[in-house]
Amino acid sequence: MASPGPPAMTQDQDVEWCDDNDDEIALGDFVMSPAKSESNKRGHPATPGSCHKSEVEDVFAQLGVGKGTATIPSTNKKKKKKKRKTQSVSGSSSNRFSSISSHSVRPTSSQTESEKTLIASNRRKGHKQSSLKMNRGGSSGDTIRRESDEFAALLEDDPYATDDAISADIEDAVGVPFGNGTPFKSTRSFSQQQLSQPNPTAPCGCDPNAPVLNKRCPVDSGFMSFSRYCIVSFEDYVHLQVKELKVVTCQEGQTETKVIYLCGDWYWCPIKCNDIFNAVSPSGSYLTSFDALPITFTTMYNPKSDVDDLLFVLQPEFILSPSYVVEHISCPRKAVLKHRFKGSSSERTEAQLVGNLRHDLFQQCLISNDVSDKSMQKVANELVYGNADEILSCDNLPQPRALSELLSIKPHVQEFARMYTAQKGGGEMMLGLGCQNINFRATSVFAAEEQYCIPALGLEGFVDMTLEAEYSPVSSSSTSLIPSSRPKVLIPLEFKTGKRQEFRNDHLGQLSLYTLMTRAFHGNFKAGGREQEGGTKAGLGGILLYMNGEDYKNKFVSPSFGEHKTLISMRNELVGNISESEDRGGESCGAVLPPINNTEFQCNMCFSKRECTLYKASERIGGGWGEEEDGEEEDWKKELAEKRAGHLTDEHLKYFMDWDRMIDLEVAEEKRGMGLMSSAWLIPSAHRESKEGSTVSGVTWDRPAWEEQKQRIQTYDEGCMLRFERASGGIATLPLKIDDRIVVSPDSTTTSSGRGQFYVAKGEVKEIDDTQIVLKCKREAGEKMAKLVGVTLFRLDKDIWKINGGALRENLGRLFKLADHGAGKDDSKDWMDHEDARRLREIVIDLKKPRFRTMGDDHLFEGPLGGGARPIGGCDLEDLMFEFSCTLNDDQKNSVRKIISMEDYCLVQGLPGTGKTSTVSFVVRLLVARGMRVLVTSYTHTAVDNLMMKLLECGVGAGVGEGDLVRVGTSSRHMYSDEIKRLMCKELAEKKYGTVKGGIEGESMIKVMDDAKVVGCTCLSVGKDVLLAHKKFDVVIVDEAGQITQPAVLGALSIGKTFVLVGDHQQLPPIVKSELAREGGYNVSLLKRLAEANEGRIGQGQESSLTKLTMQYRMHEDIVLLCNEICYGGQLKCGNETVRFQKINYAEGWRGRVGGEGWLAAALDPSRAVTMVDTGLIGGDNSESRGGGERREGGGRGGRAIINDGEVAVIEKLVRGLIACGNVDMSDVGVISHYNAQVAALRKNEVLGSEKGLEISTIDTYQGRDKKIREST
After folding, report:
1. 137-145 contacts at long range (C-beta below 8 A, 24 or more positions apart)
2. Bias category Basic residues: which stretches (predicted)?
3. Nearest one of 282, 283, 799, 830 to 527, comparing CA atoms
């Protein structure tokens, strides 16, 4: 029988105690710590004197609770040690994380004033941020009185808070006694009966003394059960520390509400109305459905309570890594910063790199079941020399030393295999940590680096290794180590390679969460000693293994329900902090981050200190320092921020704050518009396919083809092809294309129960037709698919591209070089030196006027000083001089002069069709001929590859000059893929310098990069690709700069001495989805920002930094006229008469084949270069073939996907007409639309979708490309 409400609660109190030895004494499952505290202010006087264990139990009995963490004050002053924060006596569940929990109930004397204020506020507001601003330092008497009155008003409605208690709370919050010592007198009119209740019943109608007995599931399936709810409203009963939530299911059309209660640690969840949450029973033993409500989520129990495993997962759309969750234990601020800068850099420390290599060595040797010296040496060589680019990510780590560090764990790997793997005859006792010792034997490696994405829990991560194993508790009477009848279970193993081999709380927390995720994905093993249906299930624990080359340790850990609850509550708190930091609204303000709660020494040693300092220093803009800085003890934080960021002006910090805010706004809008992969599984696959086209539903996996392919895979990390089929067809009509990223999930995934097997594999589309789709995946994806049991149908969801906010923030942060990093760890993310960072800030933020040298044309073609440089293909000075004189027009010559003479930067505005790419190619070759190194970059891989191909055509990087032109990153894989592949650094290193021990030496790749004269990459590759780490270029040339946001381009500019921005800020601006971000200037590219500043200088009679290319060689004069009228004010001109009057030549008699004189013939008339068609006026067979058929579909864009069926019909008629006209190649025809949904609808059309060569895409895809005929919708 389920209780209607929460368990028994006690009044908040702090008690201190000490024993005769002043040591920690365990009481049951909890630790009693000596500490100092005030007397309790809630009606329970402090107990003076020493207190033994029995006395503590008596105190607990008086308080009406069972076991819990408590401290009782001692009058023995001599024995007191360092102060510690006390824990709540209100009964946290027994777990190893209780000593680090932040859920303290009352302020104590051992806590700071800030903590007192925070906790007192928490008790009234129910979350970690007080809405009442308490400015104790230097507050006036009027301010204190006003704050006292406001805080008292918050407590007036609490009939169980005595006047004395309210006075105490006001003193805690405001910092002085209420009324200068005058006791608080309430004006409330509660009945005496109400005030005299010793154990009052909560206003919510629940019995606080009742045991918690949530409803059990009648059939224990062993699989997770969960339900999804939305919070309609909630009441916060502070005196009971209970929140009563009125909730509704997230099923469409449901309006009935029921109640859920949050108690214990769950009480502190930072909930808001309209928040989504999941009610989860990981074991499936408890009901979470709407019929099972009310449910009480609690971490505190009386002896009659049922110890359930129910979890309250707040905002599960935030899919967080366990490493972020446990980071929140030590520093909530750092955890939020890591999330905000997620994916920002690939550079690693030596410890991180060596650790990753040790992971790989351990995994591969156990998978191959071969830990011999010879085998381990071979694998180590492959890892070190086969991943030279990874080694390069760590500066000053030569490969021989990396190999030595890697092989140092060889004896420990062999020892672990001997003791605990069945193949080596193992099966020995393993010590338990906080649990019983076990006899353990691993029979096989089930998976390595298995990726779990469990949206029901709001968690994702990679488990180092999952072992299929047999184990049993150690028994003195057992005759064999492992009973022969023992069924196999899955055991996650967390592998740590750090120098300190300590069983730390954060490591235990990670393993606990990985254990929870393993159970959610594979199901829970049910005791009974028999094999279970549905494949091998997860066991009840995991292994924490330390191996650092000097020694190794391992222990078995079996997390309790209470530990999982504590960790998920920490996840919820982190979600609240992340949400608050990203919730920027319409105000131009800085991100709200958790306060700094570490010491100065810890802050100096922190890897996130640059990011932390920037946010801290930004607090001085528009409102002063943050609240946590009140008090002299916190002055060092302000001083440290000023020391590191004092050289940054208010304007610099405002630039950071504004762009940081706009990134948040744009990311948030993209989440709303495009949807999240974390919520895609909530939509039935067939519905998502029909509405959005971004899912392929009901496909089968061709497993025999994979099994055959598996035999040919030579290396562990080699990829594989997975083929999916659907006999009913229709795949080719979906808006999927080659290289799209796809997530594979069982099509049986539900929103209420079963295995959490969403996201079992991920790959890229390599082949697609009407009945099948082929994905390229990692090898382990096929292995994982093969181990799924009972799955016949799959769904393929397009992995939605999203803005990499972390990379944008990293680029932004690189602009603000800290003046002092302090003692400790270097900030390897800052590749710029102070002078380069200062120079770039002056240009980008301060808009400093650029400088140019004075030189004549005869000086343009001077070679490098000293001469003797080797010839570079395509870069002969005499040839370039001839080309300059004979092939470039006047606009192009002016641009070349400006670029060569610049000392800071130059802007080139290339109007449509004006030969911008040819001009850039010439400038690059001239700069190289003058002895400079050049980085060419753009936002897209396609734009970069187009430039690289143009340079190849001109002879750069070809023949004897092979290696002068290098491509970094990933190519666009379009028609030039083979040519571009030969330019990749790794390919060139292998060709020029050969292989060593089956791989490439890192020195070879360094030589290739050092010898390269021209390097091509995308803007966001800088800072992420290790080959560009600490590199410097004389000139950075950015193509299509008008379409790139400022933070995106800053990364590339940070590694150049000078730069050139090429593009057209009057064409397409950067794509912006958030109107608030647009209003803030997110759509203002750096090209536009600097061009507008240039216009202001020209108005003052100063030299222009911008040159224009105005002579176009692409469009008929009528199209030019249209462009001039709309954008360019007559500046755009035809380059010659041929271009001016060009037209299409149809076959003879074309007009008769398209209906004579109707609208179609008029639209296709070759004498008209531009035709406007009013689709609302043209005829058709039915209403659908007319224009005006615009509709908005729901789904991925929140009901804003725009589709016009009438225009699809019109485009079909136009394409049919072009085919009928004759002499038209469909590869010369392009169909363009503003909207992805309209593009999908066009591709689904039977005629348009089947016409080979016809290209249908969005406007931005066509940018800078030529088609003889373009049709727009």
Report:
1. 137/630, 137/631, 139/175, 144/174, 144/175, 144/176
2. 76-86
3. 283
List the beta bridge partners of residue 722. 775
Indicate the burial class of 581 (C-beta count within 10 angstroms; 0-12, 13-18, 19 or more).
Answer: buried
Give SS3 for 571: helix
Tokens of 412: 């420990």
Tally Cβ neighbours within 10 Å of residue 1182: 7
Tokens of residue 606, six digits: 């922190």
Ramachandran quadrant class, 1224 (left: phi over 0; alpha: psi -120 to 50; beta: rest): beta
Q: Which two tokens stand for residue 685?
A: 């696959």
Report the pLDDT value the prediction gives residue 713, as an integer from 0 to 100.
65
Question: For residues 420, 421, 423 and 426, what is the CA-based torsion angle, rounded to 10 degrees?
Answer: 10
Q: Which residues make Cβ contacts (< 8 Å) with residue 725, sequence separation at least 6? A: 699, 700, 702, 771, 772
Angle 643-647-649 from CA coordinates, rounded to 5°:
125
Instruction: Tell me which residue of 333, 989, 347 sits closest to 628, measured CA to CA.
Output: 333
Q: What distance in Å separates the CA atoms of residue 763 and residue 742, rounded to the nearest whole number? A: 5
Contact 722, 774 (CB under 8 A): yes
246: left (phi over 0), alpha (psi -120 to 50) or beta: beta
- Least confident piece of the model among 247-261, 387-401, 476-490, 745-759: 476-490
Q: Is there a contact between 801 and 780 (Cβ–Cβ < 8 Å)?
A: no
* Tokens linked to 511: 């393993």
- pLDDT for residue 767 is more than 50: yes
User: How does the average pLDDT of the chain come out, rounded?
Assistant: 76
Q: How far is CA 924 from CA 955, 981, 1016, 1038, in A?
A: 12, 21, 11, 11
Give the count of beta carbons closer than 10 Å to the beta carbon of residue 214: 25
The residue that leads in pLDDT, 1095 or 829, is 1095
Structure tokens that stand for 883 in this block: 């080309």
| ∠ CA 535-540-543, rounded to 5° | 105
Q: Do the Cβ atoms of 777 and 729 come closer than 8 Å?
A: no
Cβ(1248)–Cβ(1209) below 8 Å = no
* Under 8 Å between Cβ of 260 and 290: no
Tell me the Cα Rg of the chain: 34
| 1046-1086 tens-digit pLDDT | 999 999 999 999 999 999 998 888 989 889 999 999 999 99
- Output the pLDDT for position 585: 65
Element (H, E) at 554: strand 552-557
